[in-house]
Amino acid sequence: MKSSKEDLKKRGYIEDDDLAMYINKNNDKLFSILNSNVSFERSIAINILSSRKAIKDTTLLKILSKEKSLYTKIEICNALQKGDEVTARLMINYLGAIGKNQYINLPKKVSKKISYPLPRDIIARTLSRMDNKIVDELVSVLVSEDTRKICEVLDAVGFMLFYNQDCIKKEIFDTVSNMLEKYYNNELIVWKTVLCLSSFWTQDSIDILNEVLYGKYCEIIKQEAQRSIKIINMKMKK
């Protein structure tokens, strides 16, 4: 059942007509509206302030970490998505720390889709949609020791590379594939690495996935390896 316009508004949804009513307000007034109890007003303030480049990324991230309304969160993510490498570095600090939608256990079944799944972590999802010039910032997280961030950034790296094949480099492939050995005892990271490898449409990636397929891994990881191999083969034939 579709949500009514009023229901959407309660969740922070805004339209051009809503923006028109606030567009002439000065920045000070808009900053005060950020504390409004009305979610669509918060969305409007974020939209206008970000379009004026009047609000800092650090402020947006702090608001996002507390925001409950869906469409207000989307407005914040849309603003952050337009950022650069500096924005990405700030966002990386929040990987896996906002919301409770992240995987904490392996799924019971793999997706039947041939597209790359959208990251569940809100920061990883936003990072994955940014300009691909930030890819090196994402990959740098993989050589850290922060498993929480690694687990989420693998989704962002995989999604970005899947749809931006021109920014793939051997160094990135080597860093991603190394996750299998380095975190062999962390099934969640292994599973996400196998998924991430579906973004590298090469025989080298297939060879590593075949090692997973016949290695000492749980069934769901092997199924994900099969799915990744299938996707790569399809892409290589095009």
What are the key terms here?
single chain, 238 residues, mainly alpha, Leucine-rich Repeat Variant, 2 domains, 60% helix
Write the layout of secondary structure elements.
Layout: H1 5-10, H2 16-20, H3 27-33, H4 39-51, H5 57-64, H6 70-81, H7 85-92, H8 122-128, H9 135-142, H10 147-162, H11 170-182, H12 187-196, H13 203-213, H14 219-237
Rounded average pLDDT: 96
Question: What's the architecture of the largest domain in CATH terms?
Answer: Alpha Horseshoe
> What distance separates the N and C termini?
39 Å
Q: Evaluate the radius of gyration.
A: 20 Å
Question: What does this entry look like structurally?
Answer:
The protein has 238 residues and is mainly α. It has helices at residues 5-10, 16-20, 27-33, 39-51, 57-64, 70-81, 85-92, 122-128, 135-142, 147-162, 170-182, 187-196, 203-213, 219-237. It is elongated, with a radius of gyration of 20 Å.
Condensed summary:
The protein is mostly helical and 238 residues long. Helix content is 60%, strand content 0%. Helix 4 (39-51) packs parallel to helix 6, helix 6 packs parallel to helix 8 and helix 8 runs parallel beside helix 10 (147-162).
